[in-house]
Amino acid sequence: MATESLSVRQLVISPPLLLAPMAGLTHSAFRTLLMSFGGVGLLSTEMLSARRLPSENSSISPYLIRSGFERPLSYQLFVTNVGDVERAVDKLHEFGADAVDINLGCPAPRVRQAGGGSSLMQQNSTIRAIVRTARESTELPLTAKIRLGERLDMEKLRDFCLMLEGEGIDLLTVHARLRGEGFCRPPRWEWIGHVKSWLSIPVIANGSVFSVENARACLQTSGADGLMIGRAAPQQPWIFAHIARRVYGHNIPPKEINLPEIFMHVVQELVNRFRSERQLGRLKEFTHYFSANYTFGHHLASAVQSSSSVQEAVTRAGAFFEKNDNQNKPDI
């Protein structure tokens, strides 16, 4: 059985199952849904601009709204300039962050063109300065998420990972794909094993963990200290609880999986916490993934995507659920 918990500085991640930062998804309403099932060891915000963060209002910003129930919570920074780091980290202290994560893996063109995300893996002096400044600015756990690079180059990847550890990164998450590889390409979990062998800090595996079975396979292949789950989370919000129970041995009571109730939970939390103009887009993003639970889920996704208001989306989704009410299943 895998290790039940992971300690990083003062933070205990139990179980060692981490939510991946995802644009438009890892907001307060969705994090609350995940917590209702249990099993998440560390939650995450969406990617936050280090430059804009000091001027953000945490009571109204859709990226920063949170409840006290959402803990522990890591805040991920999109950084392009070392001069933005200290003020951004100071702001995270004000927000009560439990950990600070630096995005070094996002392959999105707009992020790379701005000089952030995976482009920083090609700028050793810049990222060295960013990590060093962040380390000097906080006693919180400092983490980073990377991809394997532009191409498979073991020496270059090793030197980069060792540099991150040397400058003060406490935990490293590795998405087991190259920068240009899409999700259709199977992840290279064995390369996470290489990273694990080079470092003394915890290494977390990320990439295509969609079930208890491949969670076990990923851990066995990579030797990682834990898992980060991304796309599977909005599709199966109960996946953390399942893996926590069956892989890590945590005593999480089974809970019936009622798909319409899960959808409405997200709707209600969006309405409760976000301004009206910030609700529908986030519901559409969630439904894009969640609809995969249904054989004809593309009809649900299309109905919500073409809605012009949350109420219209709810009405259309309700009609879909009435016609497809036999796909709920008990938790296992």
Task: List strands and helices in order, with pairings.
Blueprint lengths: L5 E3 L2 E3 L3 E3 L8 H10 L5 E7 L23 E6 L6 H11 L3 E6 L4 H5 L10 H14 L4 E5 L7 H14 L3 E5 L13 H10 L4 E4 L5 H11 L3 E4 L2 H4 L3 H8 L12 H15 L6 H11 L6 H9 L4 H14 L9
Parallel strand pairs: 3-10, 4-5, 5-6, 6-7, 7-8, 8-9, 9-10
Antiparallel strand pairs: 1-2
State the CATH topology of the largest domain: TIM Barrel
Which percent bin holds the helix content?
Answer: 40-55%
Strand proportion: 5-15%
Shape: globular
Q: Architecture of the largest domain in CATH?
A: Alpha-Beta Barrel
How far is it from the N-terminal to the C-terminal residue, by CA? 18 Å
Instruction: Tell me about the largest β-sheet.
Output: 8 strands, parallel
- Whole-number mean pLDDT: 92
- Side-by-side strand order of the widest sheet: 3-10-9-8-7-6-5-4
Computed over alpha carbons, the radius of gyration is 19 Å
- Please identify which CATH superfamily of the largest domain we are dealing with: Aldolase class I
The number of domains = 2
> What structural category characterises the helix and strand content?
alpha/beta
Order of helices and strands, N to C? EEEHEEHEHHEHEHEHEHHHHHH
Low-confidence stretches: none
The CATH class of the largest domain, by name, is Alpha Beta
Give the count of helical stretches: 13
Number of strands: 10
